[in-house]
Amino acid sequence: MQVLASVLGVFDISLDKLSNGELWLAQFFRGLSDGATYASVALALVMIYKSTGFINFAQGSLALLGVYLAYIFSVEQGLPVVVAVLCAMVASSAVAMLVERVFIRPFPPDHVLPLVIVTLGLLLIIDSAVGIVWGFRTRSLPSMFPSGAPIEWGIAQLTWRTIGNLGTVFAVVGLLYLLLSRTKVGLAFRAVSSNLESARLVGIRVGPTLGFGWALAAAIGTLGGALVVPDLLLEPSIMLRVLIFSLAAAALGGLDSMVGAVLGGLVVGLARNLLVTFLDLSELALATAVAVILVVLLVRPTGLFGSTRVERV
Amino acid sequence: MSAPYLEVAGLRAAYGDIQVLHGIDFSVAEGQIAVILGANGAGKTTTLRALCAMVSTQGSIRLAGEELAGQRTADIVRRGVAHVPQGRGTFPDLSVEENLMAGAYVRSDAGVRADMEQWFETFPVLGERRAQAAGSLSGGEQQMLAIARALMLRPSLLLLDEPSLGLAPMITRSLFEQLTAINAAAGTTMLVVEQNASLALGVADVAYVLEAGEVALSGPAGELAADANVRRAYLGY
User: Fold this and answer.
1) Do the beta carbons of residue A126 and residue A239 sit within 8 Å?
2) What is the pLDDT of residue A8?
3) Do the domain assignments include residue A256?
4) Which domain holds residue A215?
5) Is A241 exposed, middle or buried (0-12, 13-18, 19+ CB in 10 A)?
6) What is the rounded distance in angstroms from the CA atom of residue B38 to the CA atom of residue B13?
7) What is the pTM of this model?
8) Which among A150, A227, B96, B176 is least surrounded, fewest beta carbons within 10 Å?
9) Partner A contacted by B15 (CB < 8 A)
10) Cβ separation of A203 and B137 shorter than 8 Å?
11) Is the ipTM of this complex over 0.85?
12) Is B219 at the interface with chain A, CB within 8 A?
């Protein structure tokens, strides 16, 4: 008992907190809400990883650009937030296609290392460009969902925003699934992911197909950004932090699984909120994400749902 | 005799600095089966890849009188050229059915479903596994799937790279019987690279022997099968 008390002491855990059911529930809801935002950016990462075999580090930056555009459209131009976010999704898709065409396509798609370096460069360039154009002052983007909470238990609130975030992520996964499994462009996309050479040999134009993947991923990333930013403040480094949590989510889910990305996002969101609250680790919130990545790589490199390719000889 | 369906002249191909084909000429008449023989490294696979613009080339490739050299792979496929590459010609993560749908990617006509059912009849084992991931099929089944995938294009020219690789002799024989039947029924022109020279020469109309990136011998398949040098080098008797 004494040992337990001293361990709790090290982490500054009070038993009052631990036995507070409402606090648990409150953090559970917050975790789900955060998790949904990580999940949506993780989905964008998984899209690119599935088709190209590398992590697009510029994913967060394209989302950042998208969120700034959403801010311009809504706060400065006065469009309704939902419309502004949709416009921003379209605009960031166009930018992503341009970026893919100019900076990615000149490199052979099967040489992953140069491409990863290019996406890292793009991350720095886009984040800095956003800072130069819009400055480093923080702004706030309104949420797409109404404020308030339909369900409350004391301090625990299931807010419209939490419900909206979760609903959005599940809707995105559903639509992505339909797009990839039921449409011709989806078939082309999966064919390119599965076997680049055979995809060429059946007449699929590989470059534009990958460009489509970038556009789709940028739209999803922008949507994810528009979910996460209202909880925080909009400034040029905001998506870098989100990217790290989303990377952890994607790694946990197995990098190439969309369902894995969503569950990974929710787990990371919950872990983060519970650890920060009950272990008083707010300074180490980011470290929890890195810890998740590390543990996954050590214990189960294919993540929870990652495919070890089935291939007979 | 009519003009050849596929006419290749002065075809050169290189991987980086390494020149693999040093200007080869050959032709295949419409509806014929041609076989390319040669030792490892002679440039057989490269020849097929060159026809599909999967490697950088110089020289002329005319299909039904139209120049293919300089066109991109996706456009050459739209001209009716299907290619079964060596080894893995399938999409391992896609189901058998989706593999065939991908094979018909450039087609927009209504006959795709019917064609798929037809190939499921020709290769019943594929029909039994239609919902299964292609990667879980055996080597022989995957080879059948790769060929069926190529036929879904309704190709006018079918390029086959070592279709017998890794197959049991019985399966290889029945595969070649299927290919000749398809050739007879649909009039599909075929260009086959094959290690099993006796089998390939048995079904082919014309044959070319490549040596170090050049055509060393050519002629009707029956004549080459009787040629003493070919017999010693490729047939082993």
Assistant:
1) no
2) 62
3) no
4) 33-237
5) middle
6) 17
7) 0.86
8) A150
9) no
10) no
11) yes
12) no
